[in-house]
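dude i think i finally got it to work??
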Amino acid sequence: MGSRGANFCMLKALLLWVLLAATFLDPLQAQVNPSARISQLMRQNRLDDAEKQLWAVLTREPEQAWALRTLGTIRLRQNRYPEAEALFQKTLTLNARDLEACRGLGEVYVAQNQLGKAIAGYSSCVTIAPADVASNTALAKLYEQTGEYAQSLEVAHHIPAASRPPQLLPILASDYFGTKDPDKIGPLIAAVLRYKTTNLPVVLEFDAILVRNGYVADAEHLLEAAKPIKPSAEYLRAKSRVREAQGRRGEARALLAQALKLQPDSFDLLFDSARVAAQDSQWDDTVKFLRHADEVRPDRPEVLLKLALALLKTRRRVAAVAVAHKLVAVQPDNLDNEYVLASALLSTDLFEEADPIARKLVEAQPNDANVHLLLGSVQFNRGDIEGARQSFERCLELDPNKMVDARYYLGQIAERQGDVGAARDQLEKVVAANPDHAAGQAELGMLQLRMGDVQQARASLEKAIKLRPEVSQSHYQLGLVYGRLGLNEQAGAQMAIYEKLRQGEDDLRRREAGLPKADAAYPQSHP
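look at this
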């Protein structure tokens, strides 16, 4: 055999030995260097296997810092935030300069939207490693999210231009808009275009900032430049934002529907779809999207708040109360949530429950006209007419131009006290300030009818029905007006609509109370 053949045989033998050695030494290597094997399992997302090996290490060495930190990372990826926080804190007590543990702690706080703690956490990371790109980028992002744009810019500039990651470009754009320095946006657009084929998420985030700050044409041009061959759900969502900003909401809805077909459980797409539907007063669709969003990410305050309001709009009042209670439980220290709950209780005639919440709000915000209006509404419906009058008058003192609802209630109070002239005066001021105030038009029409001004009553009630055709009483009163005018056919038509709406209202009340639907022939009593 020649030297060439001998060398080939030796090479084969050597390769065989290497393979055998790797097979027999792998368990030994795992014992000698378990962190390498665990890191490999983490990269493969085999978290359970990684955790088993970590516990083997921690059983022998309970204060092994790298093992505690790695277990913290597993808990973070499992969304078990309190455990992750405790593990990262423990690691830092063992090694105060453990940068990975410090970053992990910051991630825990970001995941829980505890932005103040996250800023403190990442600030500690920057103290440990002033040039660390990841920590400075995260800290700049946090300052940008909290509106501290100058501070965000200062942190961002700690990163040398050559080392800046593309994720920093949207942050810088938001900072320059926030610090009123839009002249620097142009060069950033040029910079972000370099990533149009390699980092579409950064381009889309940058695009959203342009839209948010009114640079809609630039946003559209950027999207066109970065348009992929097959648009993703994220790209379609970005395009829908541009169309929405252009006032082309029909196109925005169509784009969102197209995106939802690609990602039907996308929280962001569902939330955007709900917002666009609400802008067009499509409240049933709004409820549908928000309920789905709540299933995807349960108990998000921004979803529960909008869902409670949308349920009130669709007259699903019992459901609105339930959602509002959940909202207050999730975010108990937010007075706006208490206001929504009290409003929902008021709409459901639960005046006794709404009363202490409304009084609490007035005590906490004595110069807020809205809370005085809320308390006055509760007092009025509980029969505390004098208390209601004082609340409504205080509301008008605080906001004489906008609070037409206070005048509306003051008109009703005057009518109850027998002062029809004062009642009419208040209601005329209501509709003069806001001709689209449906309840004001309806109440004024009823007063005008009582005072014999039949033609004026007709005009007011027809306007009220045009604004809110679902209110049964307006149809009933207009039927009386038509009867007085000898318009018997129109009067009969209005009374038929009234009976149908009253039946629907009764069915709704029975359904909310858990009672069976009433018979269609159920007699209706006129007021």
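The two ends are 116 Å apart (CA to CA).
im so relieved honestly
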